[in-house]
Amino acid sequence: MDDRPSPASGAFRLGWEEWVSLPKLGLPALKAKVDTGARTSALHAFDIEPFGPATKPKVRFAIHPIPGRDDVSIPCSATVLDRREVTSSNGEAELRYVIGTDLEVGGRRWPIEITLTDRGSMAYRMLLGRQALAEDIVVSPGDSFCQPILDYEAYHSAEVKHVAPDRTLRVAVLSREANNYSTKRLVHEGEKRGHVVEVIDTTRCYMAINKHAPEVHYDGRRLPRYDAIIPRIGASITPYGTAVIRQFETLGTYCVNPSEGITASRDKLHAHQVLARYRIGMPETAFAASPKDTSNLIGLVGGAPLIVKLLESTQGKGVVLAETKKAAESVITAFRGLKANFLVQHFVKEAAGEDVRCLVIGGKVVAAMKRTGAEGDFRSNLHQGGTAETVRITKAEREAATRAAKAFRLDLAGVDLLRSEEGPKVLEVNSSPGLEGIEGSSGKNIAGLLYDEIEKRVRPRPARRKTATRTT
C-alpha cells in the first residue's frame, strides 16, 4: 500500500537546488540541481567502464562529489539498466549508461534511474530530472533547499565508512591452475557476493612499461582496472609472477600480497633473515657457499640430526633429514654437486613430525590446523601424505604467526610453526597457502574471510582534509 501523501494532503516540496544522498553508491552528500525541464536525471562520473557478463552487465565509475576537490574521489559500481542516447541542453547527443539507485532527500527515499556523464565542469554534480520525481512532489522554482541541508564534511568523517555500499568489485586471481580447489573457491565465493572474478594465467600476462600509462596486457588486449589482485604464484614462476604483481602495484591496484613479500618468503634464506631481523623464533639455521665450511656449517645448528633444505623447496620437496654427521656431509656434498642452493637447519625432534599451520588474514589468525606426517616421515606436508586436524593454539603461537605475516607484509599467509621446548618456532611463511586443508579441518569459510578483508581494504575511505576553505 502506498502511504505517500497526495499533493492535496501535503505535497513534498523541493527547491530548484537541494542536498541529496545516493546511499547505494556510497554518496552521503551531493548538491543537485532540480530541473523539471529535463526528462532524464544525470550524475557526474568519470573513468566509466563496463564489466561483468553480457547477460548481467555492470558499470564501474568514479565521482568527485565536491566541486573543485579532485582529491576526493569515490569509486562506485551498479547494474546497467540500459544504454540510452541523451541530448543535453546545448543540443549535443551522447550515448550514456543508465543505472538504477536510491535517492534520499529530507529523510525520504525512493528508487530512480540516472544516467552517467562527465559533469566535472558544472557546479552541480547531479541533475534531477522530472522522470525521477514522484507525483506528490512539488518543485518551487523560486526556492532553494526546501529540505534539510547536508554537508560535504561527510566525506572527511570516519562515519563515511558506515555509509559505504557493498559495491561490486572486479577481482583477478593470478593463477595457472584454474581448476584447483583454492582457485575455484576464490572464484565461487567472490561471485556469490556479487563480485566479478576473473582467473588470469600469470605467464600469459605481458607488460607495457612507461612513465605515463603503464599497462598489463593479456591475450592481445589491455587488462582493465581491477579493484584487487589475489596472487596465486607458483614457485616455478616466482620471478615473472612477482614482476606482474609489481606492474599492478604501479597501477595502484590493491594486491593481497605484495611482490616483495612473495619474493622474500619464497627464498628460504631470505625468509629466515627477515624472521631474524624481527626477532621471531625459528630453528637455528646456517648457510655457506664453500665446501670447506661443511663441518662448521653442521656445528652452527647443533650437529646432527639436522635438516638440509633447498632454498626454494615447496610442499616438502627438496627437504632431507640427515640423522648423523656423516649422512649430513653426504647430503650437503650431493646438493653442492648439483650446484643447488640450500641451507641447513636444527632438527626439532620434540615436534615429532607435527607442525601447526596458522592461516593469517589481515593480521589475524583466522584458523589453525595441526598437520601430522605419514608414518615414518618427518615431513608433515599434506602433499606428502600427512593428515590435518583442527587445533587450539596458544597466545605465543598466535603472536608468532601474526608477527611473521606482518614482517613480510602479507595480508594472506600460511605460517607453519613447530612446537619446541623453547616455544613456537616459525618454520615457513607461505604466501600462497592452499585453502582445501584448512577449510576442511576448521570448517571455516576461509575464502569468505579473505573477501571480508578485500572489501574492507578497497571500499571508499574518509578523504584527508584540505587546509584551504571547503566549497559549500
From TrEMBL:
The keyword Ribosomal protein applies. One of its GO terms (cellular component) is cytoplasm. Keywords: ATP-binding, Ligase, Magnesium, Manganese, Metal-binding, Nucleotide-binding, Protein biosynthesis, Ribonucleoprotein, Ribosomal protein. Its cofactor is Mg(2+); Mn(2+). InterPro entries: Asp_endopeptidase, ATP-grasp, ATP-grasp_RimK-type, ATP_grasp_subdomain_1, Peptidase_aspartic_dom_sf, Rimk_N, Rp_bS6_RimK/Lys_biosynth_LsyX. One of its GO terms (molecular function) is ribosomal S6-glutamic acid ligase activity. PROSITE patterns: ATP_GRASP (PS50975). Residues 272-455 form the ATP-grasp domain. It holds the Pfam family Rimk_N. One of its GO terms (biological process) is translation. In the C-terminal section; belongs to the RimK family. NCBIfam families: PRK10446.1, rimK_fam. This is Probable alpha-L-glutamate ligase. It comes from Qingshengfaniella alkalisoli. The gene is rimK.
